[in-house]
Design goal:
Strand content: 25-35%
Structural class: alpha+beta
Shape: globular
Radius of gyration: 17 Å
Distance between the termini: 26 Å
Length: 285
Amino acid sequence: MVRPGEGAEAGAKHGGSGADARSALRVLTLNIWNRHDPWEARLGLIRKGLRELDPDVVGLQEVLSYEGRSLADDIAEELGYEVAFGAAHDLGGGVLFGNAVLSRWPIGRSQAFPLPTGETDEKRAILLAELASPRGVIPFFVTHLNWKFHHGVVREAQVATVAEIVMREAPMTGLPPIVVGDFNAQPESAEIRFLKGLQSLNQKSVYFADTFDQTGKGPGFTFDPVRNPFAGITNEYPRRIDYVFVRGPDEQGRGKPLASRVVFEEIEDGVAASDHYGVLSEIAI
C-alpha cells in the first residue's frame, strides 16, 4: 500500500535540488517498538531525529496500521516523506503489524512478501518499495526476522528467502538493491554470515555488504539493555542486530558503503526513541 505524496514538496523540505544532487544515498533503519508507551514522547523524538539526520530513505519495523493509516504516516507528518506500508501479520480487529518505508522521492510499486515461519507462530515479511530517485529506480527492501534466541534455524530460512526475493525483484542491470531491518541476529550468526558471503546455506551463497561492518566504528550495539531503559526490561545483553545491507559495489562504484553509525541513542527525561537504536549509512549511488 502506497501513500501518495507531493514529490516536489518533499524535495523542498529535504533540501531541494541540493539534496537530489548528493553522490551518497543516506539510508536509515529503525525498529520503532510499535506503539509502546510513552508513544507520544517517543514519536516526538523519532521526528526530531529524522529532521536532524535528514535521511533520503528510512526502513521502519514493528509498524502498526489501522484502517489504512499506519504509525509510519504519523511519523512522516510534516516531514515530506512518502510512505509505503507492508503487512506481515494481522493482529485482529483491523490492526496490522509490519514494515514501512519513508522516501523523499515518489514510491512506485510496493509489495510485501511473506517469509518462512518454521514451526513458530511468528509471521514475518519483507517489503519492497521502488523509489523513483533522480539517479534511477532504487529497489529498497525492509524486513524484520524472528526474534527468539533459539530461532536461528528459522532466521536461516528467512534470509535464504530474502536473498531469493531480492535477486528476483532487483535486476542486476539496475541500481544496487538495499536491504535494511531488524534481523535479530548478531554478526557472527549463520544468517548474517550467509548474507555477507561468508558461508553458504542450502548449497547457495550470496553477497551483500554490511555497511556498518565495513565503515562503522566500535561494536555498533543497536539493542543495548545496559544503556537503553526500554531494552533494559528484557534483562538481555547488548548486541548488534539491526543492519543496512547493499548489493555492490558494481562496476560504476554504485552500492559502495561510505559511512555508517548508530543513531537514536539519546535519552531525554528517561525516554528513548525506541527499545532499539537505529543505523544511518551513506552509500554511493
